[in-house]
Amino acid sequence: MAASAEEIQAQLESAAHVIMAPPTMVTAEQRHQSEKVLLSFRKLKSPFSTCKHILESSKVDYVLFQAASTIKEGVAREWVLLDKSEVESMRAFLLRYVMEKPHLQSYVRQQILQAVAVIVKRGTVDQKTEDRHRIYDDVSELIHSGNTALQMVACSILISLLNEYSSTSRSSDVGLSWEFHATCKRTFETSDLKKVFVFAVQVLHQFSNDDIPVSGETSVFNKFLSIAEQVLSWEIGRASCRERV
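The chain above was modelled as a monomer; its predicted structure follows.
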């Protein structure tokens, strides 16, 4: 009989406490067994409902990170088995999750958004996502919220997309061919890269008009400056260059 989501969560939290404990507090065997628990979870078939339960229920950051990682890997592994509604529901849930929890640990938030980026990228070719451009509407809403915590979430979304589409060295290792990554990169360069740059320039221009930055704005400014720099240093593929000429 398969373990319930609650049981799996309890096992993961127990394993996480062992892995994060000082070396003098646990034995090598305890650490090894805990690592096996995490590895088994990452290979779980159809893990999405269990991961959703964990994200909604667990208070352990490392376990939240593992749930996000499992979603990211599971999406790539089981993409052909997922229907359009499942994919869109998962993407919407993950985005809503980070929007409603802007004070998540940064490494947890980034991993969740990397899972979103994998979903968006994986749907670039077969259009299984409802509308991959909808994510930019979400970014725009976050930027114009005036809330620095939500603006940082917008930064994280854009950084995740840039990293996922940029090259095979920064893309997630999800078992896809180089040709698939290259096709997605060309599509992103043609239709999305300019949007990301415009977002960055708009925010930088907004902050340049502020006489005295308030608390938190400096971090947002620096993040968007980094995004602009990443776009300007982007290595455009040859096909994309020909299309623009």
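The CA atoms of residues 11 and 37 lie 7 Å apart.
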